[in-house]
Amino acid sequence: MPKLEQFEIKKYWQIFSGLKPENNKVNHDQVLPILFNSKLDSSVLNKIWFLADIDEDDDLDFEEFVICMRLIFDMVNKNISSVPDELPDWLVPGSKVSMIKERRQRQQREAADLPSEKPPDVDWYMAPEDLSVYEKLLDSSERSTDGTVTFPSLSSVIRSKFYNIGSSDMNKVWNLVNPKQKASIDKDPAFYFIHCLRQCNDVGAKIPDHLPRAMADICNKESVSYDLNDYKSDTKRQESRSSPNGNTTGNSTTAASSGASSDQEISALQTELAQLDSELSRVQSETSRLPAENNPAVVRKQLEGLLKYKRDRMQQANSRSRVGRPVNSNSVRDDLDSIEEQMTVLESYLDNKKQELQQLKMEIQSTR
After folding, report:
1. Using an 8 Å Cβ cutoff, are 24 and 101 in contact?
2. What's the CATH architecture for 6-113?
3. Which UniProt keywords apply (predicted)?
C-alpha cells in the first residue's frame, strides 16, 4: 500500500471543503453519497468508518476524512484485498497517536474480560430418530461382506453431510471407537463414530479422550467372522483332530451357529447397557442442574418453615382468645390443612422419583 502523497491530501481537502463541514467536521450523512458511489459492501464501509473515526464522536475531522477516503480508494482500485483490522502507522495522524494507543488498550482489556466459552461434552444418548439417521448414513456407505465398514468408506459419507469436521477430528474419533486399530468396525462402533462427529459438527462438542465403559466394552469386543473360507479351514482342522474311531471331537456347524447367536445376544445386551448408562448420566446431570427452588428438599424445608409460622400464629390466636379478643381460627386451620396437603403431595412425588432411579439402577446392574 503506497503512502500518502501531497497531491492526494490536496484532492481530499477539495472534497472535504465541498461537503460544507461544520466546526471543521463532517457527519455520516454528509459523507454518505461518497460511500454509496464507491459500490463497496456496507460491511466494508462500516469497518472503514470505524477505523477512520479515531475519537469515536461519529463525525470526521479532516485528518479522519483523509483516512476514510484513502481506504475507500485503495479498496476500489484493488490496492488492498480487504480492510485492515488496525490502521497502519503511516496512516495515523501524529495528533491522534495517543488516541489510537488508548483504543487498542481498551480493546485488549475488553477481549480479556470476555469469558472463554467452554465447548460442551458429547451427550452419548442416542434417540430412536438419531439411530434412524445413522442407519441411513451407514447404509449409504460401502460395507464389507461381513457387514463391517472401513474408515475411507464411512468418512466419505460423513464429509458430504458434516461440513464443519476436519480430517484430524475424524481420525481422532475413529481411533476412539476402534481401539484395536482394525481395518473395519461393526455397526455399533460406527454409530458411535457418526454420533460423536455429528455433535462436534452441530454444537462444537469437545471430542472426549475415552468412551463410557459400556461403549468401550462394545468397541473392544472381537468381531464374529462369517467368512466361508475361514469356516472351511476350521472344519478341516476339526476333522484332523478326530478320534481314532473316526468320530470328530465336536460339531463345527452347531458351534459356529451357537457362537454367532451368543455373540449377537451379548452385543445387543451391551448396546442396551450403554444406552442405559447414557440415560442415567443424562438424568443425573439434569437433576444436578435443577434450580434450588425446584429441589424437593428445599421446597419441603420452605413448607415446613411456613407450617411452623402458621402454628405459631395459631398459638398466638388461642392466647388472645383467652383474653377475650376475637380471632378467625377457621382461616388458620384451613391454611394448616392446605400446607400439610402440599407436603403430602411433595413427599409422594419424591418417593416416586426415588423408586424410578432405583429401578433404573437395578436394570443397569441386571444387564452387566
Report:
1. no
2. Orthogonal Bundle (1.10)
3. Actin-binding, Calcium, Cell membrane, Coiled coil, Cytoplasm, Cytoskeleton, Endocytosis, Endosome, Membrane, Metal-binding, Repeat
Exposure on the CB side of residue 365, measured as CA atoms within 13 A: 6
Q: What is the spatial distance between Cα 120 and Cα 196, in angstroms, rounded to a whole number?
A: 12
120-224+261-289 CATH pick, 1.20.58.2140, 3.90.1150.200, 1.10.238.10, 3.40.1360.10: 1.10.238.10
Q: What are the residues whose beta carbons fall under 8 Å from the beta carbon of 179, sequence distance 6 or more?
A: 216, 219, 220
User: Which residues lie closer than 8 Å to 52 by C-beta, 6 or more apart?
Assistant: 60, 64, 65, 67, 68, 71
Identify the band that residue 247 occupies on the pLDDT scale cut at 50, 70 and 90.
Answer: very low
Q: How many CA atoms lie within 13 A of 51 on its CB side?
A: 22
Largest CA distance in the chain: 118
Q: Do domains 6-113 and 120-224+261-289 have the same CATH topology?
A: yes
